[in-house]
Amino acid sequence: MTPKEEKTKQLFELLASVTDPEDVKNLLADLCTKKEVENMAERVFAARLLMEGKTYNQVMEKADISSATLSRVSQCVQYGKGYKNLLK
Fold first, then answer.
1. What span, in angstroms and rounded, lies between the C-alpha atoms of 77 and 83?
2. CB under 8 A, 24+ apart: contacts of 48-56
């Protein structure tokens, strides 16, 4: 495992260990800018809308997200592993 892979693994393990929403909030505040957290929140919101069967146009009306980012989110919803397993 490369040093970068080890550091990434440690990050994933840290995130997986946090169980309290307030601790998650504080950790993300330490790790990310406010805008980065807001962008992640918009992606999750858009993913939920897509998983509910909303169209691109409907999602664009409700979410503050670019069409390029929405396309990426859509690909992850369709073919990825994260959203389907975590958003129900």
1. 6
2. 48/87, 50/74, 50/77, 51/77, 51/83, 51/84, 51/87
- Band of pLDDT at residue 88, cut at 50, 70 and 90: low
Instruction: Name the amino acid, one letter, at 17.
Output: S
**Cβ distance 49 to 62 under 8 Å?**
yes
Where are the alpha helices (H) located in 1-88, listed in sequence order?
A: 3-17, 21-31, 34-51, 56-62, 67-79, 82-86
State the DSSP code for 52: T
- pLDDT tens digits, 10-39: 999 999 999 999 999 999 999 999 999 999
Cα 51 → chain centroid: 14
Model pTM? 0.86
Structure tokens at 12: 């994933």
